[in-house]
Amino acid sequence: MISDARRYARPVLAGHRLEAPLNTVFSYGSRRRVVVGLGSTGHLEVTRGVCSLSLPGLAGREATTPESLLAGLQSFFEATDGRWIMGYIGFGAHHNRYSTLAVGPDPEVLLFTPESVLVIKDDGSASSASGPMRLPRGRRATKAGSPPPLADETVDRFRVMVDDALGWVGQEPGRRLTVATRHGWSGPVDLVSTMAAGQDDSHGVSRSFYCHHGGLEFAGTSPELLIDGSLERFTCHKLSGTSGHTRDSRRPAPWDLRLVEEHRSSIDSLLTAYSHFASVSAGPPEFLRLQELVHGMTRLTVEPKPGSNPASVLLGALPTGASPAEGLSEIAKLEQFPRGPYYGLVGCAAPDGRLQWSQLLRSVFQRDGRVWLPVGAAVTARSSPDVEAAEIALKARSVRVAWHS
Fold first, then answer.
1. What's the chain's Rg over C-alpha atoms?
2. What tens digit of pLDDT does each residue of 273-315 get?
3. How far are the Cα atoms of 39, 51, 338 from residue 48, in angstroms, in the given order?
4. Are 363 and 374 in contact (CB under 8 A)?
5. I need a surface site. Which of 2, 107, 392, 403 has the fewest CB within 10 A?
6. What is the pTM of this model?
7. What is the pLDDT of residues 326-352, one digit of tens each?
8. Bridge-partner residues for 282, per DSSP?
């Protein structure tokens, strides 16, 4: 059996969920290394556009409400300097600037400082504040497979969304709009095991994650590591353009002009967005090959301007899915469901300043007996409803989901 830190993390997460079902639980990492955070000593939470802040040392006192998300983030990072910070800044955080975006009952933003942290390696060794330890190998995880196929109603609704998005995209050259829908089904899933079943890739950029907070639970494996480094310099592995494998697994999938232009547009948009707070350079386009998908990938080297703080950098790196960014107002018109955390950033900041944040993709959510998988695709001038509908079906099939046995 291949050593995998996620499988050692699985019984830790499952056991804590049983012992303290109301506690915040979070994990993030790869096959090589997983960071697990248990409990919370302070948090920043945004729900329905309202930002509340509880800093370490304020236990038992009423949380403050900052004037803005940026102010809340700045206060939180200042108060938690030198501690682990974990969680997500979801797509719903854009509601702070575009109030027409739909928001739901689930937090759009959750960052917290854990009560205890366990760093787990793929050989079963682990470290915490109390010292090193060895973790026992847990029982074999529930076998994971693809979710149920997309319902015809979901696909038909998505085709209509793409057709409507093309109306906005076609108004000016170079426009791009990522639209998303929800694929829901009945029956509870084992999201701790879903995290442990995460895929690997040839470049080692995929990260698996699990989060439980306030009744919302989600897990997945994202191939898009957007921030990897420090506040002074980090690498952004930007993905855009998705296709299936060719019959010859040794050769990259051929790209048509639609995928080439989609990737170029995505990189140009990101270069423009990052230029507001950093100097940035792009490497050559590559292919990221996963088990069932092939993505175009360009690595960006990002050096935030001197004096930058984590709050402004994370908000600057938060994906919009629209080029130009004003297209967020079109997303608000087109999408039936609030995205919440989906399509935002998920990850952690270490006490030594190391940052790792992935785009929150390929994730299964669960709350109050409802289970859903958000899926989306980028619409450009060369898109068509049928092509983009086929893409979301391909992406949905690639997700690995574990059910309770």
1. 20
2. 999 999 999 999 999 999 889 999 999 999 999 999 999 999 9
3. 23, 9, 10
4. yes
5. 2
6. 0.96
7. 999 999 999 989 999 999 999 999 999
8. 300
